[in-house]
Amino acid sequence: MTIDYKDTIALPKTDFPMKAGLPKKEPELLARWDEQDLYGRMRAQAKGKPTFMLHDGPPYANGHLHIGHALNKILKDIINRSQTMMGKDAAYVPGWDCHGLPIEWKIEEQYRAAGKDKDEVPIDEFRKECREFADKWIDIQREEFKRLGVLGDWENPYLTMNYGAEAQIAREIGKFLMNGGLFKGAKPVLWSVVEKTALAEAEVEYQEKKSPTIWVRFPVVTAKDPVIEGASVVIWTTTPWTMPGNRAVCGHDDFNYALVEVTELAEGSLAKVGEKLVIAEALIGEVLEAAKVSGHTVVASFPGSKIMGSILAHPWRGQGYDHDVPLLHADYVTDDAGTGFVHTAPGHGADDYVTGQKYGLEMPRTVAEDGTFYPGVPMFEEACVLTPEGKDGNANGISIKALIEAGALLAKGSLRHSYPHSWRSKAPLIFRNTAQWFISMETNDLRKVALNAIDETKFYPAAGRNRLYSMIENRPDWCISRQRAWGVPIPVFVNKETGEPLRDQNVVDRVAAAFEQEGADAWFTRNPQEFLGKDYKAEDFEQVKDVVDVWFDSGSTHTFVLEGREDLTWPADLYLEGSDQHRGWFHSSLLESCGTRGRAPYKGVLTHGFVMAEDGRKMSKSLGNVVVPQEVNDQFGAEALRIWVVASNYSEDLRIGPEIIKKQVDSYRRLRNTLRWLLGNLASYDASKRVAIFDMPELDRWVLHRLAQLDKVVREACDAYDFHRLFRELHDFCALDLSAFYFDIRKDALYCDAPSDIKRLSALTVLDELFNCLTAWLAPILCFTAEEAWLTRTGDALDNSVHLREFPEIDPAWLNDSLAKKWASIRNVRRVVTGALEVERAEKRIGSSLQAAPKVYVPEEIQALLEDVDMAEVSITSAITLSTDSPVDGAFTLPDVPGVAVEPMASSGEKCERCWKVLPDVGAKADYPGVCVRCADAVSESQATAE
Prior knowledge:
It catalyses: tRNA(Ile) + L-isoleucine + ATP = L-isoleucyl-tRNA(Ile) + AMP + diphosphate. By secondary structure, this protein is α/β, with parallel strands linked by helices. Among the domains are: 5-17 and 669-815, Isoleucyl-tRNA Synthetase, Domain 1 (Orthogonal Bundle), CATH 1.10.730; 209-423, Isoleucyl-tRNA Synthetase, domain 2, CATH 3.90.740.10; 838-946, Isoleucyl-tRNA Synthetase, Domain 1 (Orthogonal Bundle), CATH 1.10.730.20. The protein contains 28 helices and 31 strands. The strands form nine sheets. Strands 6, 7, 8, 9, 10, 11, 12, 13, 14 and 15 form a ten-stranded mixed beta sheet that branches. Strands 1-23-24-17 form a four-stranded parallel beta sheet, sandwiched between helices.
């Protein structure tokens, strides 16, 4: 009887396909999770366990998701899933930021396209359109987030425009009103002429802008020291339009300054022979070159402290600018550019304002909200800084012309520099003195409380602490008012006679109650008397119509989400956003919570970097390097993005593009093939024939040791949110320890050994443990693939999911450091053997390693180590001879494995038709011709079992 030995080999069998087909498979799994209410099951199963609270920073509801959204939400999902699988109750409530200028701007764009005037539309109608716009994009983004595999309470998200949320935001404003932290003041703020509102620093981006530069003389009127009598102090600025607001010049006590007399001029110079100029010594050459001064004499040099306190004249003295201009010390002055003196306009800069407050300088109001100068500003009645379209107006030109006519301009030029722009309209901004509502950083010691809270917070990475700390330490009062329509109004009444805000908790409560019923629209539609009640008359008060900064909205989310829902806890264990949120959400949430609750609303803060194109450039449609999450999903599946997130070091800026995605797809394929190989071999696994660890061969015990090591790594990495390390360890384990080593060795036993062979049963036991561990450890990252693999083996009952599991508990007995050390040496010897055989294969002296029976020269201590090891099995050769003799000339060696050499030799005997080893005992059993004795016995046992 002829035996078809191929049918006697236990080859892997599985329905888990090699080709993933993720774009089709992932939506099927999403539908299954919806059907089984996976999130609800996870919550019910976790009830009573220790909680883990990741509070979702709300994305903005105004467009399709971009790759930064995908990074952020996938990372949050991985964290929540991993915490759940470590035995925590990790509820996740996603949310959206719904108010503010981005949405309002979109509605205004629609109005402009239709020829409508926003100001003619009733505010409640306008706000209704904004709400509908946000609703539309929330629905779209919700589905796009779910497609990425992000699990959460998507049916009950939080929205900052929900009535309850608007009411709570009003209550939070009321708390600052009642504790005295909220006040109205005039300060310079970054102002958008195009959008007609103040902007927060987080809403600002810096782009290159070409600005005029001017060097201007300020004549000395009263010299603190006679050395500068009759001279002019020279300033340099890139904002000529701010000259009407000048009220001081600042220098530095510790700088060395010089009195320079002009002796010669080049053609076109605006300087005058014989005039004396005061300039920082370090900048003399720079300034005189700009002024086209070809000859000069340094009359004197002196420290800045000698001249501070002098009185200068404004360049337009006698033309409506007759005030004295004091020369003052300021720490922020530098002598590495300009002149060593800074023109100071308290209404047009943060540093200028601080100096003005310190020295009691006037802060004139010069520029209106539309970018034009107020009537009555001398010489600038017709001037405009920026047009409604964001283009440069005529103010710089008017200023320069007036300076020339006054004989005050020493030189002019231009400069390309980084300048603040609105990240929405992309138009330049101006610092403008305007009345706004502020939260004081000093009242109630808000700054001190916030700094203490930072010290009590864990930061991932740790450098985030210093960044946020320095921002809080140096920031001015928090400007929370915006001159817009779509947002939560600042629900404050101001006494018309005293100018003081009304502080009455009953009024605050009535406003909040109305907002609960009708939303914040009630502020604009109800009679103000309803809020004021019987104790006050509406005609005595001005109702504030500014809306609150959206950063206050999002900074308050902890109050109506974490405190407002029974399934959540306050404070959060973690806030997680991009590194720009040190000045955004992390910042505003910290201030809001410290100002109302005395501590941060989070225990930890994790930041990730920005996403760049794969060449390191910024993504841009014009460059064609934008990666769209939806397109990646459609082509490769969301797993490609999920694996990209963890394969990258997300604490830094990340890169993505076609080649990087391809690399991640390759990584994914290796992991998938690992799971597929496990599933295929486990088809013949019988749990009743499990082998105890102490009965296992050493190689199998070594794999269990590696699993015990990895269990520690997995848990440490999840606790530290270091999924980059976790992925690298798991990937390398699958690729190097398993596929390239353990699987490579054990496939012979699994395929060819007799069904009852202890080595084969031991290997199957280990494969079962590998499958249980890997599907759990990979589940937070490859949520679709781990689920698919798990269901393939365990069945698709609706109460079954890999995501309802916890990480397996590892038997401490698996750890065996001495065994690991021994097998590290064995693997080194194996590397030398396989290296030698690779040379033989390349030279076509062998085709397969099973044709070889190399002689391996080793030191005596290595030979002793290998006495009980089948090195032929380990090296996948048909035989191996170990020798402690000196190696023959030309034996193969590796520099990093000293003392080991390999002499390649051919195996003697015939090729077994079943296991393909070349052995002398092939055909020894007449009933099983063409196979070795081992295979003959295996076939015999299989036949007997079948009968």
